Amino acid sequence: MEKTLQGKVLDEERTIRDRIRKNVSDFFELKRRDSKFTPIKDRIRYSGPVYDEKEVTQMMERILDGWFGVSSYSDEFEKNFSKIFGVSSSVLTNSGSSANLLAVSALCSNQVPNRLKPGDEVITPACTFSTTFNPIVQNSLTPVLLDVQPGTYNINPEQLREAFSRKTRAIMLPHTLGNPNDMDAVMDFVKEHDLFLVEDVADALGSSFGGKKLGSFGNFGTFSFYASHQITLGEGGAVAVRDKRFEPIIRSLRNWGRGEGPFDDDWTKGTIIEGYDNRYLYVTIGYNLKPLEFQAAMGLEQLKRIDGFIKIRKKNFNALLEFFSSYEDQFILPESLPKADPCWFGFPLTLKKEAKFKRKDFLDWLEKHNIETRLLFAGNIIRHPAYREVVYRKVGNLENSDYNLKNSFFIGVYPGIDSERLNFMVDTLKKFLDKFN
Ligand SMILES: Cc1ncc(COP(=O)(O)O)c(C=O)c1O
């Protein structure tokens, strides 16, 4: 039977899509053939995206579909992600920073009966990332800063008691560079004082404590899928929600503030707004922090790779730990708790007071050999110019955070570092360090 014009167009579309898929596949095949590492010429990044034709094909297909807003691929990503992380639901966002903003804003939302109010206190470490800290200030809450411990770069939970006041309502807790906090002590404190807990898991996807995945302890776990993180959507993030009642609030705040799913009808009953089109009915004071559908399509492929990615990060971390154990006279080495199973974001080091060289000399040497490094985020956030006028409290003098600001850094462990690159890293490190032995 003769095909209709529409049928012919569909056939042609299929053929063109096949050609595109083949071209994408050929492109990555060529890249794989040409992937030989040339020391010094090729940069060893501290982290980066690891993907191939599977991700790119999925993204291309979604772009060709012509539907960009969050839809079925985003739904599927959220479902799979929640299952992996053992939370009741999760909401995709356009970044980890947005995930943090949504989590803290949700705790302040008019939809939460015991919500946080301006001036309420949130305990958080001083050695942190900007957008872990910022949502506290952006929501007119008062940060209470704790120092971090050498080697773990996490808070000392014993200091939570010192930080506590009658205004304390929440803890904003990053697992620094993927290293799990002492969740037994933190959860005891949270329960004792009926606090909200947001875990910033941006750097810690795949880490667990006592066999339980990070991000599933707190009211919210916030994740980043920026290109350097354990999995990537290019940019992106998610809020993992433990208590299902919070999901429509997070979703509403993400989607301009409109009514998403069930919300309290009493809010509109008998008012002029009763029965109004949900798409333009606003129940929270929201933002637009949505990702794009093709990012979710990339994410679905990345989720399939998680176990492999985690394994390589752990392997690279352990190899570096073994190497640096010969140089403990110069460095404070990374440490984790006995119940922790970290999937490290990077390999952190801090120069000891008695080290025989300066951080700058060491980082310059690595840079000269095209090995990338990063500083430990803010060091002490409150030392940065943006925060000069921020009102805060602190416990102690934050001396370790100040020390980190001047003496800490990290190098890469990501899956793009294969054995050739790792060997070159180790040789280069050794050449520098052996000058001081
Ligand atoms: C601990 C922490 N929180 C939040 C973020 C922000 O994530 P994003 O870059 O996706 O906004 C980062 C970024 O690396 C981070 O390290």
UniProtKB/TrEMBL annotation:
Concerning InterPro entries, the annotation shows: DegT/StrS_aminotransferase (IPR000653), PyrdxlP-dep_Trfase (IPR015424), PyrdxlP-dep_Trfase_major (IPR015421), PyrdxlP-dep_Trfase_small (IPR015422)
Check the record and name the Pfam families matching this protein: DegT_DnrJ_EryC1
GO terms for biological process, alphabetical: polysaccharide biosynthetic process
Is the keyword Cell membrane in the record?
A: no
Q: Which domain of life is it from?
A: Archaea
Extract one GO molecular function annotation from the record: pyridoxal phosphate binding
Sorted keywords for this record are: Pyridoxal phosphate
Record carries keyword NADP: no
> Per the similarity annotation, which family is this?
Belongs to the DegT/DnrJ/EryC1 family.
The name this protein carries in UniProt is Lipopolysaccharide biosynthesis protein RfbH
- Which species is this UniProt entry from? Candidatus Iainarchaeum sp
